[in-house]
């Protein structure tokens, strides 16, 4: 991909086909959109997608990843290029570092501290000052990943409860829920978090680092790329919580913006 390449968001059902050295995106009720392959950093699909092998080959050859989100906004998977940026030396060093408990704990503390500070900034309220101070005192005393995650979880639950005080009743989280989210607020958070994760994964695939060899989430999530999860953490509140509070204040979200069925938002 080139330096000026950008992300394209596929928010409608569409077909992706190759046309010479361009990608042709065919939407149901509109004329096809043709995009030069050199203009694409990655594609994020939010709905039904039909893609053939010719298009996949072109995208892969140019290092373009297609990220797929499911109906609830959760990250469902990706169609990605081969790992031609991988390095045996970097992979060995990365594996050695993730196997070093002291390194993992040091990096885990830094990730949690940074994420919590970003939550405080995004929420813009002194109601989180005391919980943030308590977390800073607890982190040095945590000697396992479980203890770190427990301290982080306590802070996040407090932060989400504070966030609810700025939201109208229909947007309140009332506790974090996932897969599927239980209400509109949780659906919004999951949706934005999935986008952040997708962007971090794209960035990681431009480096020799392996996205599956993480530090903080290495023992807690074995199904996803844990380094991408680690690095996405500090960025999530800068978008998800911040945008949700802003949207509530500006009344730019409405219940009709969300779909729900039998207990699923």
Describe the structure.
This protein is α/β, with parallel strands linked by helices and 265 residues long. It is built from 8 helices and 8 strands; from the N terminus they run ββββββαββααααααα. The protein has helices at residues 53-61, 88-98, 101-123, 129-138, 145-164, 184-204, 226-232, 236-250; strands at 6-10, 14-19, 22-27, 33-36, 40-45, 49-51, 65-69, 75-79. The strands form 2 sheets. The protein has a 4-stranded mixed β-sheet, sandwiched between helices. The protein is flat, with a radius of gyration of 20 Å. The mean pLDDT is 87.
Integer-rounded radius of gyration:
20 Å
Residues in helix, %: 40-55%
Mean pLDDT: 87
Question: How do the helices and strands follow one another from N- to C-terminus?
Answer: EEEEEEHEEHHHHHHH
Largest sheet: 4 strands, mixed
Oligomer state equals single chain
Indicate the proportion of strand residues: 15-25%
- Calculate the terminal CA-CA distance, rounded to whole Å: 36 Å
- The neighbouring-strand order within the major sheet is 1-5-7-8
Output the keywords.
alpha/beta, 15% strand, four-stranded mixed beta sheet, 265 residues, 8 strands
Topology:
Elements: E1 6-10, E2 14-19, E3 22-27, E4 33-36, E5 40-45, E6 49-51, H1 53-61, E7 65-69, E8 75-79, H2 88-98, H3 101-123, H4 129-138, H5 145-164, H6 184-204, H7 226-232, H8 236-250
Helix pairs in contact: 3-4, 3-5, 3-8, 4-5, 6-7, 6-8
In short:
The protein has 265 residues and is an alpha/beta fold.
